[in-house]
Amino acid sequence: MLKKWIGALTAFTLVSVVTLTGCGTNSTSPTTASAPKPAETKEAPKDTPAASKKLTVYAALNEDDIVQIQKKFKEDTGIEIEYLRLSGAGEASTRIQAEKASPKADIFVGGSVEFYEPLASQGLLEKYSSPNAKDLDAQFNDPKGFWQGWYMGVLGIVLNKDRFKKELEPKGIKEPKTWDDLLDPAYKGLFITSNPATAGGGYIFVAEQLFRLGEDKGWDYLKKLNDNVHHYTPAAGDGINLTATGEFVAGMSWAHDIVKSAKQGYPIQVIVPEQTAFEIGGVGVVKGGANTDNAKKFVDWLLTKPVGEMNTKLSNRYSVRKDVAPPEGMIKIEDVKLVKYDREKAAQMKADVVKKFTEMTGKK
């Protein structure tokens, strides 16, 4: 009888242990911690570390753009963005290269994809193709998977209407309608543009002239224009601010940023010349960053319709999504007469073009 009682007690104990183990209670549960463990039971697995809720972003965007992105991304995902806003895509690219041994950023966002290609070729970007990119036009997706296009912008002329009417119109000068009109000596010292070494827009403008006119005539145009340029700014947006406040009569920058400043009440207007160039605004995951999973979530998030609509409303940029309406106050993209811009060639020749341009313009 005693043996039967002991056997029943043993069976009951084993069943109790199995039942506790099968309930999925974690190792911090008081019940599990106090339960006896048979000698043959393996040590319980340790808790999985909590997912990161941070993302470090290098942004080649306007301050208010990245601030709104920071706010909305946290609302939608719970992930906190810590950002460093840089003067242009060139500066962001240079910083990522300098930090390649110990990457500080998780994401590089903003600026033209021409600045992403060199980083990808150096192994500084993580390969990632978002599932949200499948319905986009092929030109907005890197076939190699290292960068992603999420907006599009066209280059334009920013004109200070007040200064133009007071100073140039009385001389019989008409408002510029083409890039060639900017060669008029009347604009000497009154025109401003950006440095192709540091600004995505600055480089695309230079490359555009080479594609528009051909190699020799393109460089001849840039030399003549240099005589009228007061100085070259680090970022494309700088020219808008300086023209809007009346320091210059005209400048070159992104049409969407010009419209944005005009809506704020500045006496400026945008002119989109024929044979203008366009940028594909990029985003890329920095290889070796501390929050790669969150960086991929950020890319996916950027490509959603609500974020596309938010960005279009905020920045006046065209969305890469077909289901997002064009920005208010901007010319319809189908009415823009674009130059035949070879993006792959532009990326390949960038180093040589910037070197030659810098030598040609000196320290201006």
Tag the structure with descriptive keywords:
11 strands, 42% helix, single chain, D-Maltodextrin-Binding Protein, domain 2, 2 domains, 364 residues, alpha/beta, eleven-stranded mixed β-sheet
List the helices and strands and how they pair.
Layout: H1 2-22, H2 30-34, E1 54-59, H3 63-77, E2 80-85, H4 89-98, E3 107-112, H5 116-121, E4 125-126, E5 148-160, H6 161-168, E6 191-194, H7 200-213, H8 215-228, E7 229-233, H9 236-244, E8 250-254, H10 255-263, E9 268-271, E10 278-286, H11 292-302, H12 305-315, E11 318-319, H13 343-361
Parallel strand pairs: 1-2, 1-3, 6-7, 6-8
Antiparallel strand pairs: 3-10, 4-10, 5-8, 5-9, 5-10, 5-11
Helix pairs in contact: 7-8, 7-13, 9-10
Structural commentary:
- The chain starts with a helix and ends with a helix.
- It is built from 13 helices and 11 strands.
- It is an alpha/beta fold and 364 residues long.
- Mean pLDDT is 87; it is low at 1-45.
- Strands 1, 2, 3, 4, 5, 6, 7, 8, 9, 10 and 11 form an 11-stranded mixed sheet that branches.
- The chain is globular and about 70 Å long.
- Helix 7 packs across helix 13.
- 42% of the residues lie in helices and 17% in strands.
- The longest helix is centred in the first third of the chain and has 21 residues, at 2-22.
- The chain has 2 domains: 54-153 and 279-331, D-Maltodextrin-Binding Protein, domain 2; 155-276 and 352-361, D-Maltodextrin-Binding Protein, domain 2.
- Strand 1, helix 3 and strand 2 form a beta-alpha-beta unit.
- It has helices at 2-22, 30-34, 63-77, 89-98, 116-121, 161-168, 200-213, 215-228, 236-244, 255-263, 292-302, 305-315, 343-361, and strands spanning 54-59, 80-85, 107-112, 125-126, 148-160, 191-194, 229-233, 250-254, 268-271, 278-286, 318-319.
